[in-house]
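Field notebook, page 381. I keep forgetting to write these up properly, so this time I am using the form the group agreed on. The chain and the ligand, inosinic acid, are recorded exactly as supplied. Prediction of the bound pose follows.
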Amino acid sequence: MISNIAILGAQAGDEAKGAWTNRLSKDYDWVIRFNGGNNAGHTIYRNGQKHVHHLMPSFNWEYNHTKAFLSSNMVIDLIALNSEINQLFKIDPELPKRVFVDPDAFLVLDKHIEEDKLKNGNLGTTNKGIGPAYTDKINRTGIRIRDLLLSNDRSLNVDGWSREAFKALLEKGVQFKGILELYNHFNQDRLLFEGAQGVLLDVNHGTYPYVSSSQSGVAGIYSSGFHFAPPKVVYGVTKCYTTKVGTGPFPTEIFGESANKIREIGKEYGATTGRPRRIGWLDLPALKYGALRGGITNWIMTKFDVLDGLAEVPVCTSYDKEVTCSEDFFNTKPQYVNFAGWTNSKDINLIQPFINNIQELTKINISYISCGVNEEDTFKL
Ligand code: IMP
């Protein structure tokens, strides 16, 4: 029997979670997004075609049993959701019927996006209105999808475009159903929980205030109401180096030619905003911290091909101080060990020593690796 699993970002987002969720989703009935909104950008290649999901869970719809669920712990921009559903509809008009949205999720409205643009520049947010929408929720002034379902009341402060998008979603057959309405399914079916962002951007445990506004660790699963069906294995996805968009501490950041080379080979530009990502070496104290705070039990390590040809691969194995809280990522000095590089990551024997070192130093096993976007570039260890 297959147990429920979670796939979450072990760094600051952009670790290729979407690709791995899509790949593993064939063995699951539901792919459940449990945090954030369309600040996420999950890139998936299907039959040589590139798809970027922002709100849509990365389910592989080619398998008829897979369905998608957007949980109540998310904040949802209905206009953005409608444009993703339109793409699904073009592929097959039946597909939107396999997308379920919890009506207890809160709305991201025009005003939230405007506020994000005005106020959050210094944090380098994605300007998708995420922080202001969660602020309204916690402040008890937010509007839920359920409010739209219950009322045609024009006094409800929802812009016309969001109302139109909601109508369009209903017409295309997207199902607005809560967790208890689907309880019997969730209780019996196989669930894959897909995180957004990464544990270092978690509002509780990340590098505050340079974080997103939701829980990117397992807490987001429980906040969504899935305590009755928790994941048995929690995969933390990490690249074999580090990237970050937006501002905030980045102890292992590198600049100049080495950074530019990795950025170009790894196509390290934001999937949501197109911003060039900051680049750095793999940071084991950060990974270990993220695993403890986010509930990670196993690693998935990606993008080995990007470092093909380096004679040595520096890895930060410690800081000048022990990490006991997220504040320790500010003003810290990373200490490096240079591990032997590899010429061709498609030959697993060449990267095995690196894999062994990371497992030993983090005390967490690597379950899967990838060295490219195609199926044949992925390996179960
Ligand atoms: P917000 O989520 O738009 O409020 O942005 C807060 C911080 O999280 C910024 O540094 C963003 O660049 C970062 N961020 C948000 N979503 C993602 C993501 O999916 N991948 C990587 N970084 C993200």
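OBSERVATIONS:
- Residues 70 and 101 are 5 Å apart (CA to CA).
- The two ends are 20 Å apart (CA to CA).
FOLLOW-UP: compare against the apo run.
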